[in-house]
Design brief:
Blueprint lengths: L6 H4 L30 H26 L13 H18 L11 H20 L5 H4 L3 H30 L18 H20 L1 H4 L9 H24 L6 H20 L9 H24 L14
Helix pairs in contact: 2-3, 2-6, 3-9, 3-10, 4-6, 4-9, 7-9, 7-11, 10-11
Length: 319
């Protein structure tokens, strides 16, 4: 009678890995780390809130300004300034809605950092020019109420933007961010550097030295107008230069979506208020060149992103 054992009992070492021998488990079973820093839900929610507010308030400012009515929170000598601020708000709103689709902070920072600049900057301009607010100067009841509501809304959004940014950087960083899947073409980098520096320089001048730089604005502005326009110019410069430093069109996708819409919206407002602009001045030529640069940047970026991706190009931002 045969007394030989079954193969499994005769050779225990050939059995499958068990809890007694965890080291035998395949290495592929461990989850791969997320590249970059995981996006905070607060950043995505705030982006949506700011987008909704921007669409409503921006449309009011842009449409009223294009029709010849200055509907801003402060008194303006020419409706074009609040209209341009409103147009920029409308142009950036669609891109802000897309932040909630991102997975990592690296995919949204080229748009979120300018958002922080805008909200904090507008709050500072509002407080520094409190005497020019409609609620202080008086006027039509609607504009007084609009001005009265502008202050707390901007203050809350500015504080929330800074708080969400701080909370984002308190989140643990994952694996190093993936390598660039859609690098910016080398020929365009000097042009982007000039474009970003131009917006940044003009914005800083209007914001911090409005008495001097407002003379270069080709329409009538006061201190609050100059500083409000400076905040948006500064934010555009930060966005362009951040995207340049990112060197990845996939990670800069929200900013790429925003800049051409901002350029088109501002161009429409300028066309509507064309008689109010001194088109023979250097300031008007510079503004048109900078807006054309934004439009060309956005269109070129979208075309490059639409090209078929190479092998291994899949990643969190590639969508």
């Amino acid at each position: 009678m045969s007394t030989s054992a079954t193969p499994s009992s005769a050779n225990p070492s050939s059995t499958t890995p068990s809890a007694a021998n965890p080291s035998a488990a395949p290495a592929s079973a461990a989850p791969s780390p997320v590249p970059g820093r995981e996006l905070s839900a607060a950043v995505a929610v705030l982006g949506t809130v700011v987008a909704v507010v921007s669409l409503g308030v921006g449309s009011l400012l842009a449409v009223a300004g294009a029709a010849g009515y200055a509907a801003g929170a402060w008194v303006s000598p020419e409706p074009l300034s609040p209209a341009l601020i409103g147009a920029a708000m409308v142009g950036v709103a669609p891109a802000l809605f897309t932040l909630r689709r991102a997975d990592t902070w690296e995919e949204v920072r080229s748009l979120y950092l300018p958002l922080v600049v805008v909200m904090v900057g507008l709050l500072a301009v509002t407080l520094l020019n409190a005497g020019s607010l409609r609620v202080a100067e008086g006027g039509p009841l609607f504009l007084v109420l609009f001005s009265l509501g502008w202050v707390p809304v901007v203050a809350v959004l500015a504080l929330a933007a800074v708080g969400c940014l701080a909370a984002q950087y308190r989140r643990p960083a994952g694996a190093p961010a993936r390598t660039s899947t859609a690098p910016i073409p080398g020929w365009s980098k000097p042009l982007l550097a000039v474009l970003g520096s131009g917006w940044l320089g003009i914005g800083a001048g209007l914001l911090f030295l409005p008495g001097f730089w407002s003379a270069f604005v080709p329409w009538a502005v006061n201190r609050a107008d100059a500083q409000g326009l400076g905040v948006w110019a500064l934010a555009l410069g930060v966005g362009v230069l951040t995207s340049l430093a990112e060197d990845d069109l996939a990670r800069s996708r929200p900013a790429v979506r925003a800049v051409p819409l901002v350029a088109v919206a501002c161009g429409v407002v300028l066309a509507a208020r064309a008689p109010a602009v001194d088109w023979t001045s250097g300031g008007a030529v510079s503004l048109l060149a900078l807006l054309a640069g934004l439009l060309a940047t956005g269109v070129t970026g979208r075309l490059l992103l639409g090209r078929p991706a190479g092998p291994g190009a899949a990643g969190p931002g590639a969508r």
